[in-house]
Write a structure and sequence with these properties.
The chain has one domain: 2-Layer Sandwich (Alpha-Beta Plaits). The protein is globular and about 35 Å long. By secondary structure, the chain is α+β, with helices and mostly antiparallel strands. Strand 2 and strand 3 form a beta hairpin. The protein has a 4-stranded antiparallel β-sheet.
């Protein structure tokens, strides 16, 4: 399964659930803003993320997972000066 970039944003109404979702997201990607992460995932990992988040969230909460093509990623601009998202970020697997 090939991986690609996803932009994940959430709006959680309860502080306890917000902390749980933030902790969950740290295991999947890099924080860009308070409730926005960039994640390099395959489709199976996206479904796992959705499933784990659904166990925490309620109907009043929102989660957006936006897939980004290579052209979209190349056009991302970041004010901090670090514009580029690597094509293949360094990853590791614990066995």
């Amino acid at each position: 399964m090939s991986k690609s970039w996803f932009l994940v944003a959430y709006d959680i109404r309860d502080p306890v659930r917000l902390r749980k979702i933030a902790a969950l997201m740290k295991g999947y990607g890099t924080r860009m803003q308070y409730s926005v992460f960039r994640c390099f995932l395959n489709e199976r990992e996206v479904e796992k993320l959705r499933w784990e988040a659904a166990k925490i969230m309620l109907g009043e909460d929102d989660l957006q997972i936006i897939g980004l093509c290579r052209a979209c990623v190349s056009r991302v601009k970041n004010r901090s000066g670090n514009d580029a998202w690597p094509d293949d970020p360094v990853t590791f697997e614990i066995i």
